[in-house]
Write a structure and sequence with these properties.
Radius of gyration: 16 Å
CATH superfamily: Hotdog Thioesterase
CATH architecture: Roll
Strand order of the largest sheet: 1-2-4-5-6-3
Number of helices: 3
Shape: globular
Distance between the termini: 49 Å
Strand content: 35-45%
Helix content: 25-40%
Number of domains: 1
Number of strands: 6
CATH class: Alpha Beta
Low-confidence stretches: none
Mean pLDDT: 90
Largest sheet: 6 strands, antiparallel
Structural class: alpha+beta
Length: about 150
């Protein structure tokens, strides 16, 4: 049985450190099931509190799950910020649905990266497609006084 590559171990450690500080994920029940360099899988169950006036999942929660999973995939490369994001809602999610988001790095260029995230129901039905652009920042960026 082979050991996990050092990059996967480092990615998991970084994800665990992030998750410990991520109250939004914990409060909404978002779990980060898998993480590897440039890749992450997140999961969330739609609750009644997440339903909109039509009785289906509010798009903001779908975006949040996709954006969160994107964030964890980016963070495997170091400190990273979202620069831009876009989502296409393909079909509604219902209360009780378990959603799984899978983020994959498509390319990196300079300090920027491009990631795609597919959000599916647990049965594999696609619910949304998300594309995020990332920007790498120094590791101390979040602790240093902001220049902005």
């Amino acid at each position: 049985m082979s050991a996990e590559p050092d990059t996967t171990v480092a990615a998991r450690r970084r994800a665990d450190e992030m998750y410990a500080q991520d109250a939004a994920c914990r409060d909404l029940g978002i779990a980060i099931d898998q993480v590897a360099e440039g890749h992450a899988v997140g999961r969330m169950q739609i609750t009644a509190a997440m339903a909109n006036s039509h009785g289906v999942a509010h798009g903001g929660y779908l975006f949040l799950l996709a954006d969160t999973t994107f964030s964890y995939a980016c963070a495997t490369r170091g400190a990273t910020l979202a620069q831009a994001a876009h989502i296409v809602f393909l079909r509604p999610a219902s209360v009780g649905d378990e959603l799984i988001a899978e983020a994959a790095e498509r390319t990196r260029f300079g300090r920027a990266g491009l990631y795609d995230v597919t959000v599916r129901r647990a049965d594999g039905t696609p619910i949304a497609e998300f594309r995020g652009e990332s920007q790498s920042v120094p590791d101390n960026f979040f602790r240093a006084p902001s220049a902005y």
